[in-house]
Design brief:
Structural class: alpha/beta
Strand content: 25-35%
Distance between the termini: 41 Å
Shape: globular
Number of helices: 10
Number of strands: 13
CATH superfamily of the largest domain: P-loop containing nucleotide triphosphate hydrolases
Length: 297
């Protein structure tokens, strides 16, 4: 039977000289999950992915993909990767590059279905040098999928895409997850993680500081956000009970508070009306910032 754990990392440690990038990290990802790996620059998330892909030998620890070592799993066609700084050969056409990669696998993804799935069916005859940034990312995705891998590893996959292209890309990812593929991706776009991932793993200082659904990660961070419309001076808001920060955009005010009830009582005692009043839980961005504050090395 195939392993229930598609990616299994135990006590992973990565050092670059005197710098400890990953500190005895444990991570297990089950088949069929879509997992977002989040972390500030230098947190260690790219080192985790690179070690998982066998791109270097870690200082210590063990990595297994589909029950095998990284290189063995990749040679068997079990893993597709789309790296942050992936390149394409110049002076070639997209279809030529795709066919070259497909020939490396015993049972490649049929080219017609693959090109439609990756959104490059209209690009096969185009020269690589004529592709836009978003189109290049789509082609790199098609190359990662060429062997129909059960595990897909993506490092900042939408960094060169505009908003529409990003939305289309994640529609594709959801369709792949629906086909049973396991998707692991690192991103700085927290809205993508919140909308797409079944599970969010937050890394800081080379260690995992949160692991669960986006809802669970947000709920674990104490505090609420109060939003309302208020023109004029707002200097007194920072002194209200429970308020930890005040931000504003035009007439829209946003208060972060550790005691929403006390803050609301004080607001209502000072204002007859609070137009557009909303009380929300912590956003994933707020949870991420609190979890990772001072956590990078």
């Amino acid at each position: 039977m195939p392993p229930t754990s598609v990616l299994d990392i135990e006590e992973l440690t990565v050092r670059y000289g005197e710098t400890l990038a990953v500190d005895r990290l444990d991570l297990r990802i089950a088949a069929g999950e879509t997992v977002a790996l989040l972390g500030a620059n230098g947190a260690g998330k790219s080192s985790v992915l690179n070690a998982a892909l066998g791109l270097f030998r870690p200082t210590a620890g063990r990595v297994r993909l589909l029950g095998r070592g990284p290189l063995e799993a990749i040679r068997a066609g079990g893993v597709g990767a789309m790296l942050q700084h992936g390149g394409l050969p110049s002076e070639t056409r997209v279809g030529e590059v795709l066919e070259l990669v497909r020939r490396q696998y015993d049972t490649p993804w049929p080219v017609g279905d693959l090109s439609v799935t990756a959104g490059i069916d209209g690009l096969l005859t185009r020269k690589v040098d004529a592709l836009s940034g978003g189109q290049r990312q789509r082609v790199l995705l098609a190359l990662a999928l060429a062997g129909a891998p059960p595990l897909l590893v993506l490092d900042e996959p939408t960094s060169a895409m505009d908003v529409a292209a990003r939305q289309a890309f994640w529609t594709t990812m959801r369709a792949l997850a629906g086909r049973g593929h396991t998707v692991v991706f690192a991103t700085h776009h927290l809205d993508e993680a919140d909308a797409v991932a079944d599970r969010v793993v937050v890394v800081a200082g080379g260690r995992i500081v949160a692991d669960g659904s986006a809802t669970a990660v947000k709920a674990a961070v104490a505090g609420r956000t109060i939003r309302f419309t208020a023109p004029g001076e707002r200097g007194e808001l920072a002194g209200l009970p429970g308020v930890t920060s005040v931000s504003a955009a035009g007439e829209l005010v946003e208060l972060a508070t550790s005691d929403a009830e006390a803050t609301l009582r004080a607001l209502l005692a000072r204002h007859d009306r609070l137009p557009d009043l909303e009380v929300r839980g912590a956003t994933l961005e707020q949870a991420f910032l609190r979890l990772t504050a001072g956590g990078t090395r």
